[in-house]
Amino acid sequence: MCARRMCFYLSAVGLGVGCAGDSTAGSTGWEARVDTVGDTIRVHTVSGSELGGVVDLIETVRIGSLEGNDEEIFGGINGLAEDAAGNIYVFDRQATALRKYGPDGAYIATLGHKGGGPGEYANSDGGMAVLPDGRIVLRDPGNARFTLYKSDGSYDSEWLGRGGFFTSQPLVVDASGNAYTSVIRDTRDGEEPWPNRIWVMRVLRMSADGTPLDTLDIPRYRIDPKVIIAQRDGGTSVNDVPFTGQFFWAVHPSGAMLTAVGDRYAVDLHRVDGSVLRMSRDTEPIAVLPDEKKEAEAGATRNMRGMVPDWRWNGPPIPDTKAPITGLRVGQDGRLWVQLAARAERIPEEERQQLASPDPESPPPPRFRTPVVFDVFEPDGRYVGQVRTPRGFAVYPQPVFEKDHVWAVVRDELDVSYVVKFTIGTATPP
């Protein structure tokens, strides 16, 4: 034991005892500096990764088309889930349909249909997961319940849920079959300032039969939200200043909570035993291009003037560099996918014109797009590596991440949606 702290190193195969500040390289070339302060184990990647470089996602299966049968055309996908056999379930909110496709992308069946009766759904927010016994759970706030289907697609049962509360947070299932879903904690006027509204969110844990077990608090951080505010009688609109650090959280399949504040590269896994595993690494600052900043400011101003026509900027200025973390995702296999800030790309003028609306009152098409890039970690802190995604890769609805593949929604240059399966490719130098 070193003075005032217990020290560790992390190798390619796990956690071992060492000395504070030591750097240890595993057989893959990944090198980390690890120490422990109190209940927090800090794993800082110094160099290398288990993949040995940057990898790209390679498309292997594509579902959907511009024209065809109903099951081939997607209008507004807001939920994905994969079962143990590799079948992918897709909820399309525009079609109000839950469809099942095989590992090869072939359409198999539509589960249930729109309505309020047993096995039906009214307005799902896309929260969906597969229980260890193969049953599919669909969160349906429109009917104030969760609807369950057997693996053959037939109706199984339902759990009581909260009506009217829609969230983009995924529905998570752990190895014991417990389900985790977001809920809003009741608050009294003035208890929570609006910019800190994230703190009213909690996570409800339910057993495999839908019985509420307990509620979990999202770990608190002392943060200074960078926001702009528009107020008028009867309403307040609060938006984050573009490119500033936001608070992110997710539920891990182990029952742990994953959190990060975007303006610093530190991702905390709050484990069920009370300890915290903090993953970090040094990254290169990403500049906000001057024209990119102007476009972001114009877009934010336009949004706020939708509430207050003469609104003027009343928050901190847009920064010159982007916050390093822009999102958190968790794979069904437990891996952590940290979305990174990336350099913007100019959209060719020909493509911009394809996105332009004939309505003269509509905002102009964007001039920039930002690639989606992830850092991937094992839940014990090992840095797997960086994964680049193809153009059009959507982070909402949450992709299905597995060790060797990813299912995600991809939108083409005409904004047509497809469901695509990718495998993780061969590493190239970063």
Structure description:
The protein has about 425 residues and is mainly β. The protein contains two helices and 35 strands. The strands form eight sheets. Strands 1, 2, 3, 4, 5, 23, 24, 25 and 26 form a nine-stranded mixed beta sheet that branches. The protein has an eight-stranded mixed beta sheet with strand order 27-28-31-32-6-35-34-33, with no helix packed on it. The chain is globular, with a radius of gyration of 22 Å. The two termini are about 35 Å apart.
Show the helix and strand layout.
Blueprint: E1 6-11, E2 14-17, E3 23-25, E4 31-37, E5 40-47, E6 54-63, E7 77-82, E8 88-92, E9 97-101, E10 107-111, E11 113-114, E12 120-121, E13 128-130, E14 136-140, E15 145-149, E16 155-160, E17 172-173, E18 179-184, E19 201-206, E20 212-217, E21 227-232, E22 235-240, E23 247-251, E24 257-261, E25 267-270, E26 276-281, H1 290-305, E27 325-330, E28 336-340, E29 345-346, H2 349-355, E30 368-369, E31 373-377, E32 383-388, E33 400-401, E34 405-411, E35 417-424
Parallel strand pairs: 5-26, 6-32, 11-12
Antiparallel strand pairs: 1-2, 1-4, 3-4, 4-5, 6-35, 7-8, 8-9, 9-10, 13-14, 14-15, 15-16, 17-18, 18-19, 19-20, 21-22, 23-24, 24-25, 25-26, 27-28, 28-31, 29-30, 31-32, 33-34, 34-35
